Give the backbone structure.
Amino acid sequence: MAITETQPKSDQSVTTDTNKTITLRIARFNPKHDLASAFNEYEIPVQKWTTVLETILYVKQNLDYSVAVRYSCRQASCGSCGMRINGYPRLACYTKISELNSDVITVEPMFNFPVMRDLVTDFTQMFSTHKRMKPYVINEESELVSGKKEFLQTPQDVEKYLQFSYCIKCGLCNSGCPTMATDKSFIGPQGLGQAYRYVADSRDKGKNERLKEVDESHGIWRCHFAGTCSHVCPKGVDPAMAIQLLRGYLLGFGR
């Protein structure tokens, strides 16, 4: 394993001017040549504001640049750095070491996604399912041709779908879903939540198309309502409620 001894950059949030250290355990797995995952352990200096992502980047910059991790915005907006942290699906950039109340931090790839390498998982199926839900407002062609540019809504109309528009596609809800662990073809809470986001939008005319997509054997009726999806969402979205409301539409309510 290649090791680099480069010094920490001046803008690093993980610094060595503290006496507190934690043990960071990183799951390592490359499906091209590994039969099973293994853990590498690193001693990392931390401060009270240090995030899990910062400790992983400290490892990459100072101890082992071969660690694979996906990240981007560092402010819980892009959804790139989802992983299991001490067994729980979280965003690494949004999780502080001090919040975990442990001197041993274990990071692993998310459940229910194929592992590409180490902490990086493959989102191909989730994005494909998201696309199936037609994640855009569908209007009548006549309305568009007429030159209409605004489709006004009341605050009450907006409130029906607003929270579901906050989804950042981090995959944590799918990772925490027990149904997805047993049915790889299940649409999943992310896709079902986004289907409801547009079904509930008063500007949209594609409700029947989306309801047809979710009303199938690997669709909305496979949900066992464990509620984990809503519990782990970092943006406060409630996919479990969206699924129940979608069921209401299919049963003839809310039409």
Remarks:
- Strands lie at 21-28, 38-45, 82-85, 88-91, 104-108, 115-117, 120-121.
- The chain is about 30% helix and 15% strand.
- The mean pLDDT is 90.
- The domain at 124-250 is CATH 1.10.1060.10 (Fumarate Reductase Iron-sulfur Protein; Chain B, domain 2).
